[in-house]
Recover the amino acids of this structure.
């Protein structure tokens, strides 16, 4: 219903002798005034001519001064030759005052190069829960004796027991003969992905002009790696569904989510014949995939320390 109202408003305000813009962005918040720590809804609505390709940037963690606690995408609506799509975000903020909320980056094209759609901005007011009347403030009670907490001792004893058990298990594995006929350990996901990337480079698909086959294989390597490394059903998801899922996964930080999003969107554009990359573009995409595999194979703390 909100999307239809946005279309009607755009139709009324547009000049009769001037056609509407190919892509228009509108934003609003519900409600416009909230208290500190209260969640509110932020909606981005994009209307475009039917058939226009639209790419909306997905914020990974924040919108302006606010943290994203939830988000979703509403089904597109077609009306009078225009397509409207809406994304909503559940935000929360902790700084009182009036804050600006800029719209995410929106790009579009009609058979040519991607163009930037004009952004929009709205505002939300955060009110403090403190009041000037402090007559009901009372002094705190004196501290009570702190009871003895035995939980750390229990935890330490359990940890010691686990260390002893692990040591015994490792010793037993080391003493096992190599010819015991045991199953070989499964290969690590990043080792498999690195080998597949090296093999793809040796095939020289880019030098032969087979860009679509090259990007398809590169995308499959990254998606298969994500499935084995993080348990994500990446090969079965569309790019948009997959990016929405990874945005909720704390194991990927914002830098890696943005790198992955740009890589997958570019791969989709090539695979569906909407973009013709250069050799330099293809090599840059391979480097981005190799960097993503190498950095996400280690814990985020190790990556930040190495950087």
């Amino acid at each position: 219903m909100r999307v239809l109202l946005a279309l009607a408003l755009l139709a009324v305000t547009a000049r009769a002798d001037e056609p509407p813009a190919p892509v228009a962005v509108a934003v609003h918040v519900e409600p416009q005034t909230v208290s500190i720590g209260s969640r509110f809804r932020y909606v981005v609505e994009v209307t475009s001519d039917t058939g226009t390709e639209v790419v909306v940037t997905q914020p990974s963690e924040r919108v302006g001064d606010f943290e994203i606690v939830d988000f979703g995408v509403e089904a597109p609506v077609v009306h009078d030759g225009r397509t409207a799509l809406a994304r909503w975000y559940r935000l929360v903020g902790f700084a009182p005052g009036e804050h600006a909320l800029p719209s995410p980056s929106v790009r579009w094209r009609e058979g040519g190069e991607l163009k930037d759609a004009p952004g929009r901005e709205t505002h939300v007011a955060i009110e403090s829960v403190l009041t000037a009347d402090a007559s009901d403030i009372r002094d705190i009670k004196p501290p009570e004796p702190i009871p003895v907490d035995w939980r750390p001792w229990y935890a330490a004893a359990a940890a010691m027991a686990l260390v002893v058990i692990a040591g015994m298990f490792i010793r037993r594995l080391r003493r096992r003969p190599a010819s015991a006929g045991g199953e070989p350990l499964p290969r690590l996901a990043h080792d498999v992905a690195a080998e597949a990337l090296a093999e793809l480079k040796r095939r020289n698909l880019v030098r032969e002009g087979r860009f679509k086959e090259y990007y398809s294989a590169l995308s499959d390597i990254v998606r298969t790696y994500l499935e084995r490394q993080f348990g994500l059903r990446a090969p079965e998801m569309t790019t948009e569904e997959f990016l929405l899922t990874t945005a909720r996964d704390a194991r990927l930080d914002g830098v890696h989510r943005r790198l992955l999003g740009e890589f997958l969107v570019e791969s989709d554009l090539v695979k569906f014949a909407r973009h013709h990359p250069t050799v330099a573009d293809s090599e840059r995409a391979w480097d981005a995939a190799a960097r993503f595999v190498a950095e996400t194979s280690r814990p985020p703390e190790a990556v930040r320390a190495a950087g």
